[in-house]
Automatic annotation (TrEMBL):
GO terms for cellular component: ribosome. Signal peptide: none annotated. Pfam families: Ribosomal_L31. This is Large ribosomal subunit protein bL31B. Belongs to the bacterial ribosomal protein bL31 family. Type B subfamily. PROSITE patterns: RIBOSOMAL_L31. Part of the 50S ribosomal subunit. Keywords: Ribonucleoprotein, Ribosomal protein. It comes from the Bacteria.
């Protein structure tokens, strides 16, 4: 690799505030905010909106979507299909 052209690859804490979950990993992402980790060291922290602790696929908490209402609205707008003409 060419020296001086790549961003610094260092430990960073990613924090999901909605699930009160954080994990330490290595990344090139930067942040001005820092947090003290369990090992006593201070690391840059990046707040994320969703992680494996809050994502419906991993948690099993699916949102209920009103698909019946959408289908009925579509049928009212465009008809039931080719057979009803």
């Amino acid at each position: 690799m060419k020296p001086g052209i790549h961003p610094a690859y260092r430990p960073v804490v990613f924090r999901d505030r909605s699930a009160d979950f954080a994990f330490l990993t290595r990344s090139t992402a930067t942040s001005d905010k820092t947090v003290e980790w369990r090992d006593g060291n201070s690391y840059p922290v990046i707040d994320v909106e969703i992680s494996s602790a809050s994502h419906p696929f991993y948690t099993g908490n699916q949102r209920v979507v009103d698909t019946a209402g959408r289908v009925e609205r579509f049928e009212r707008r465009y008809g039931r299909g080719r057979g009803d003409r």
